[in-house]
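Retro notes, item 3 of 5
We never archived the inputs for the nicotinamide-adenine-dinucleotide complex last cycle. Fixing that now. Sequence and ligand:
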Amino acid sequence: MEIGFIGLGNMGFPMARRLVEAGHQLTVFDTRKEAVERLTARGAQAASSPKEVADRVETVMASLPSLQASLEVATGAGGVIEGKRVKRFVDLSTVGSQMAVRIHDLLAKRNIVQIDSPVSGGVGGAEKGTLAVMVSGPRADYETLKPALDVIGKVFFIGEKPGSGQTMKLANNFLSATAMVATSEAVVMGVKSGLDPAVMIDVINAGSGMNTASRDKFPRSVLPRTFDFGFATGLMVKDVRLCLEEMKSLGLSVEVAEAVGRLWETVIREAGPESDFTSAIKPIEKAAGVVVGGAKGSHAAK
Ligand code: NAD
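Structure as it came back at the time:
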């Protein structure tokens, strides 16, 4: 299938690479030249703008870091909306349902179908093709896309309503965000009272406390203190804020989400938006006066 792909970052690059390797013909664009070159070296064609991508193919996918970037790439000047051949815009980014509907409505005026297709499973899942892919949009377009999306992960049809794939994704990421900070508080509690954090993680993973932070993030990026899982704090906070907005717009009570949101606002303030989101433990450690893991093992500050 001929596919356009815009945004070749931590997630976009491995997804686009898998599509090329599966035999799809890709036309790619990114504002970073080196990101484009990594794909053209593998057989993709380069384009000089989102419009040019959309001039050449019927299906344009995007994996972009902010709501503004998705809006501009899809509907701005020189955007997908101006393309001659494009029929559908497939947004793999997390933008929340309100922005998805806004993009949907603008593209609909030019008879371009907007498809939500946010993904979950991190950079590792993108590399292995094991992402959860949450599609919403017209069923016929879903059927057209499914063989290509199968290459990047397990594909779920969420519904025809625009934005519903995004709502699904926010529910998922709220749980991921909660697991990260809750596990940090649990492990810091143990270290403060003298427990070994590596033993704690083994016990949690054999017990009922097991979650994605204890299973993946702590062993790989927190205990060795590499903080290199591949998802920026700024992106996690974007998703937590979007989820809170979505919950409030539905008139829900949001006690857990409010507490989780406050913690993540502290993380972005103290560690910065570019830090890896596994840095979430750092403000919790600092407040407790302990350090978890590392070469010397865990220790309480003197
Ligand atoms: P990233 O910052 O690594 O990649 C974004 C890419 O988009 C970069 O290569 C950047 O140069 C490019 N870009 C930015 N503005 C552009 C524009 N106007 N035109 C063309 N290219 C542009 O981000 P990421 O981690 O790959 O995340 C992308 C999306 O996927 C986000 O919505 C994020 O929330 C979501 N997501 C990320 C993860 C993860 O683990 N990293 C997991 C699931 C979902």
